[in-house]
Design goal:
single chain, alpha/beta, Rossmann fold, 6-stranded parallel sheet, hydrolase
Length: 318
């Protein structure tokens, strides 16, 4: 099967050259595909199968106008596949408009978010000034500061600035490290990901651009230097470790200003029988009651019976 990938950050002529050679399928980001459509360089009137993957994420990132423009360019008589990890109102609305009498396949409980049982989740409650020191300590415990280490870690920050700052701090300290975020061009991102896959770098610092769809063998630690903005993103972030039956650690830093995010994390931890520290419970108890999904919420409504928690290890085995 001949396929072309169309995405921003890569040269348009290269993508168009491959498209003009004749392809069976187009895999595209909405923005770049719309650029080609508006320029009259690509036609979709021969499309008979349309796949929308991570529809919730695309809507959350503001791509709904581009998606609707694409929908107007494809034939109405088609086979549509619609994939989403969450099912909020805006996603349901779009699905109802573009799907005709669809079959719905649900994996797991859509109303309950839970992490992989093979991930040991740990939350460290600390002040903002201690975070950098703790990063180095955790990498040391995981053996990632040794030149011969086979371990790999993925560190998440919420801003591009912090992503670059932390990555530079690690590099200056001799840690094989790179970073990816929205301001990095595609070639730089690909090089960083390849470095982590081959083991040339041990630590990749990223914004949520890497939270979904990233499947790299051997990532033993996910560190949320900054907590995710909503509980769905938290679950997706920690899911980058413990892939394909492996074990992994997910460690999250929370400061007093993150109290509103603690409750959702506690709920996710309890659903997989994780140990919740008294410090985390106290932080969650200090948060005001608010909206529980997305934004400044922290979880989903409802409580579940907890069973016996596993004990927390004092070292990280990666």
């Amino acid at each position: 099967m001949r396929c072309v990938a169309m995405y921003g950050g890569a040269p348009k002529p290269t993508q168009m050259s491959k498209y003009r050679q004749g392809v069976h399928s187009i895999v595209a980001c909405p923005g770049r595909l719309n650029d080609f459509l508006e320029g009259g360089q690509v036609r979709l009137d021969g499309i008979f199968k349309l796949v929308l993957d991570e529809a919730d994420r695309m809507l959350d990132m503001g791509f709904e106008p581009q998606i609707r423009k694409i929908l107007n360019k494809v034939p109405r008589k088609r086979h549509t596949l619609f994939f989403t990890a969450t099912w909020p109102r805006e996603v349901r609305k779009l699905a109802s408009e573009i799907l005709n009498r669809p079959y719905k396949v649900m994996i797991g409980n859509r109303d309950v978010l839970k992490g992989n049982q093979d991930i040991t989740q740990i939350v460290k409650v600390l002040d903002a000034y201690s975070k950098n020191t703790q990063v180095f300590e955790l990498l040391r415990l995981g053996g990632l500061l040794r030149p011969d280490s086979a371990g790999k870690a993925l560190v998440f920050c919420n801003t591009k600035r912090m992503c670059d700052q932390l990555s530079n701090n690690l590099l200056r300290s001799g840690v094989p490290c790179s970073s990816i975020h929205g301001d990095k061009d595609q070639g730089t991102r690909d090089e960083a990901l390849a470095g982590l896959k081959t083991g040339r770098i041990k630590v990749l610092v990223a914004t949520d651009v890497a939270a979904r769809g990233l499947d790299i063998k051997g990532v033993g630690l996910v560190l949320n230097f900054d907590p995710a903005n909503n509980i769905e993103d938290y679950v997706h972030r920690i899911g980058r470790t413990a892939r394909a039956g492996a074990k992994g650690y997910a460690i999250t830093f929370l400061t007093p200003s993150d109290a509103h995010k603690a409750r959702g994390i506690i709920e996710v931890m309890e659903r997989t029988n994780q140990e919740v520290s008294p410090e985390l419970r106290a932080l969650g108890g200090s948060a005001p009651v608010g909206r529980t999904r997305g934004g400044k919420g922290g979880g989903r409504p409802g409580r579940e019976k907890r069973s016996k928690s596993r004990s927390k290890s004092s070292s990280l085995s990666m």
